[in-house]
């Protein structure tokens, strides 16, 4: 324990580690500010002038207007939304329902609170909103189930067992859906961006942990001590992970609590189906999604840091490890153009195995959870893709830790 404390203090004295911690907190504060700053609202004041406000005042005003649409998504509430939208459409024209085509104050008071639900309805019925009838609305949940059944049968027509598995998962989804108009999915995107930033920053921090001692040759002195073998390797892994994990949790959990406190904790009740796409398998609410995103980011962070520590140990070069980290992230970001000629199965396997898999666009855990339905097929066995991401990351952590310790001890021989 004393050795662990000493190693932790040694790492915290490094300028690069201090800068990384400060940068992590700074970027979280910036994201929190942006989250509030871009909230807008407009209204008519007592002098009949149109006033546009931003930030906390805008959020407060919007809450009052949007209370009417919060709660269970019932056919009656959807019909009310349909009538409101059609009234505005008749007044200003179907193609003028926007900030530019109508008074800003009326847009924020009548259209903005229902805009997302309008998108959900057009997604379900596959036609323009003004062509949706009250009879359609009364069968909203039946339509949604029918869409799901058709989609899964088309996507998995060669895998009947997968279809059954998907239907079982879908049957567990609770209806009626719950919607809170303040539950903006942008926080999930912000958390996803924070995960990318934190994993990259602490991957760079992990790069010199072992390599630096090889280059200064202090490693050979440490190996002559009583705890200079596997025990010391474990201490170095634990101390590096401690800094990365505590900083990550402090920033992401703090950011989430800040968002929920500002916008109201009722947002946590919103059904996952009402965020992006109503035809998904996630039987979760918004609060559970926040928790899952933070946990997935945490295990991704641990897996990436352990992988970089392994590279630092085997390359024995700070420069070489850092270059590999940068290349790994570049490949993860722009893999589609690079690997477009490769078989899709090979591409999928490669992108799931690399530690950065699941945190970038086009290979994103959040998108696979909330916007698409994908399964990985292993013979007759199928696994839902978001679960696959979790399993692979959890398996990688002990594997990389073992490889670090093994390779470190092997050098001693």
Question: Can you characterise this structure?
Answer:
The chain has 413 residues and is mainly alpha-helical. It has 2 domains: 2-36 and 181-412, no CATH class; 41-69 and 74-138, no CATH class. Helix content is 69%, strand content 6%. It contains 18 helices and 8 strands. The strands form 4 sheets. The protein has a two-stranded antiparallel sheet. A hairpin with a 2-residue loop joins strand 5 and strand 6 (363-364). Helix 4 (75-92) crosses helix 5 (104-125), helix 10 (208-216) packs parallel to helix 13 (286-315) and helix 13 (286-315) packs parallel to helix 18. The mean pLDDT is 82.
Short description:
This protein has helices at residues 2-12, 15-37, 55-66, 75-92, 104-125, 134-138, 140-155, 160-171, 186-206, 208-216, 218-222, 230-263, 286-315, 318-333, 335-339, 344-353, 365-370, 385-412, and strands at 40-44, 50-54, 71-72, 178-179, 359-360, 363-364, 375-378, 381-384. The chain is mainly α and 413 residues long.
């Amino acid at each position: 324990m004393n050795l662990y404390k000493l190693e932790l203090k040694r790492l915290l004295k490094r300028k690069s580690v201090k800068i990384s911690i400060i940068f992590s907190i700074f970027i979280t504060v910036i994201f929190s500010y942006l989250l509030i700053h871009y909230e807008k609202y407009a209204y008519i004041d007592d002098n009949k002038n149109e006033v546009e406000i931003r930030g906390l005042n805008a959020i407060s005003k919007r809450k009052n207007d949007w209370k009417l649409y919060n709660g269970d998504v019932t056919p009656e509430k959807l019909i009310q939304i349909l009538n409101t939208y059609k009234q505005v459409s008749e007044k200003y024209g179907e193609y003028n329902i926007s900030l530019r085509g109508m008074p800003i104050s009326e847009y924020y008071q009548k259209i903005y609170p229902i805009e997302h639900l309008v998108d959900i309805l057009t997604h379900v019925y596959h036609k323009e909103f003004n062509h949706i009838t009250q009879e359609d609305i009364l069968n909203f949940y039946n339509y949604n189930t029918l869409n799901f059944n058709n989609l899964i049968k088309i996507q998995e027509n060669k895998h009947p067992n997968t279809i059954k598995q998907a239907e079982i998962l879908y049957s567990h989804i609770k209806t009626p859906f719950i919607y809170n108009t303040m539950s903006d999915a942008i926080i999930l995107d912000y958390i996803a961006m924070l995960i990318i930033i934190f994993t990259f920053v602490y991957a760079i921090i992990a790069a010199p942990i072992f390599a630096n001692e090889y280059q200064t040759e202090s490693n050979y002195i440490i190996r002559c001590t009583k705890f200079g073998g596997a025990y010391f390797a474990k201490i170095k892994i634990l101390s590096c992970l401690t800094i990365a994990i505590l900083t990550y949790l402090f920033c992401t959990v703090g950011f989430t609590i800040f968002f929920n406190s500002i916008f109201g904790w009722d947002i946590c009740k919103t059904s996952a189906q009402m965020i992006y796409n109503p035809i998904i398998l996630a039987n979760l609410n918004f609060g559970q999604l926040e928790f899952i995103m933070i946990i997935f980011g945490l295990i991704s962070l641990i897996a990436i840091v352990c992988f970089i520590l392994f590279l630092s140990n085997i390359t024995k070069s700070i420069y070489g490890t850092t270059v590999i980290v940068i290349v790994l992230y570049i490949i993860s970001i722009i893999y589609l153009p690079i690997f477009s000629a490769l078989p899709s199965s090979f591409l999928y396997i490669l992108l799931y195995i690399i530690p950065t898999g699941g945190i970038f666009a086009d290979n994103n855990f959040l998108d696979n959870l909330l916007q698409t339905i994908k399964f990985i097929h292993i013979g007759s066995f199928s696994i839902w893709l978001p679960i696959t991401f979790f399993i692979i990351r959890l398996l990688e952590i002990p594997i990389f830790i073992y490889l670090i310790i093994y390779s470190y001890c092997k050098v001693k021989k």
